[in-house]
Amino acid sequence: MENSLLEICCFNLESALIASDSGADRVELCADPSGGGTTPPLGLIKAVRRKITIELYPIIRIRGGDFLFSEEEFEVMLHDIESCKSAGCDGVVIGMLLPDGRIDKLHSSMLVERAYPMGVTFHRAFDWTRNPFESLEDIIDIGCERILTSGQQPTAILGSALIKDLVKQAAGRILIMPGSGVRASNIADLRRQTGAHEFHSSARIHKKSGMHFIQHSMQEDQESVMADRHEIEQMLIQLSR
After folding, report:
1. What is the pLDDT of the chain when averaged over all its residues?
2. Residue 158, SS3 per DSSP
3. Could you tell me if residue 152 is left (phi over 0), alpha (psi between -120 and 50 degrees) or otherwise beta?
4. What is the pLDDT of residue 222?
5. Helices (H), 23-96
6. Closest by alpha carbon to 202, among 1, 51, 59, 44?
7. Which of 4, 9, 221, 230 could form a disulfide with 202 if both were Cys (CB 3.0 to 4.6 A apart)?
8. Contact 22/232 with Cβ under 8 angstroms?
9. Which helix (H) or strand (E) segment is 148 a member of?
């Protein structure tokens, strides 16, 4: 059986260290979990790069919301890719769409070209495309090495039938990586149902603040999103069977 790999989506330095120490194969580094993940600050990227030896792929997404970006936003993403390259990252994660729901091949190709020789993952913008099979071929043409997808459903388990079809169509030309709602309780079933060999999970839990003093007149939640070491270890156990 082909070896399976686990990528952990991390939103802070501590989570990246947990992912690395727990045996994960790759970190996707993001900011703003409530916004679906945006480009992390360069200081964080550099700190994570210094601290972990597994693969590091920051997301290149200037803002939350849709995946239709202006020329000005695109220019920022080009510069962010250069920063990731200079920081010694192994790859980046991108995704751009046209107004009609097709892949923005022109701009995405330019991002891939700017990233070289780093690897490039096309993120879940894929799940908002109008035709996943056409989009798969477009992303292969662009030169990405994998697609992160939940099978155009809220979770990868719900989208497993489409993911299976995408794996079959890809036929080894590109990796299809299920993500969204992937946990130790379902990762083995997901591998069996889809035929995929790379999996993406945030393994997230909420960590309470260590503050002893809380100003109760302020309502902002001070919990942080953190990777769960036990959950990662259990997923890896499931993938090793």
Report:
1. 96
2. coil
3. left
4. 74
5. 42-51, 71-86
6. 59
7. 9
8. yes
9. strand 146-149
Q: How far apart are CA 162 and CA 184, in angstroms?
A: 21
Q: What is the mean pLDDT of residues 177-186?
A: 98
Encode pLDDT of 151-167 as tens digits.
Answer: 999 999 999 999 999 99
* Amino acid in position 188: A
* pLDDT tens digits for range 20-78: 999 999 999 999 998 899 999 999 999 999 999 999 999 999 999 999 999 999 999 99
Residue type, 239: L
pLDDT at position 87 over 70: yes
Question: Which segments of 98-228 does DSSP mark as H helices, in order?
Answer: 105-115, 132-142, 160-170, 187-194
The full set of domains in the chain, from first to last, is 5-121+183-207+221-240 (3.20.20.380)
Overall residue count recorded for the chain in this entry: 241
Look at residue 4 in the predicted model and tell me its pLDDT.
96
C-alpha of 145 from chain center: 13
Q: What angle do CA 157, 158, 160 make, to 5 degrees?
A: 60
CA distance 19 to 227: 7
What is the distance between the alpha carbons of residues 93 and 120, in angstroms, rounded to a whole number?
6
Tell me 55's DSSP state.
Answer: E
Concatenate the DSSP letters of all residues of 90-129 into one string: SEEEE--B-TTSSB-HHHHHHHHHHHTTSEEEE-GGGGG-
**Gap between the Cα atoms of 11 and 45, Å rounded:** 11
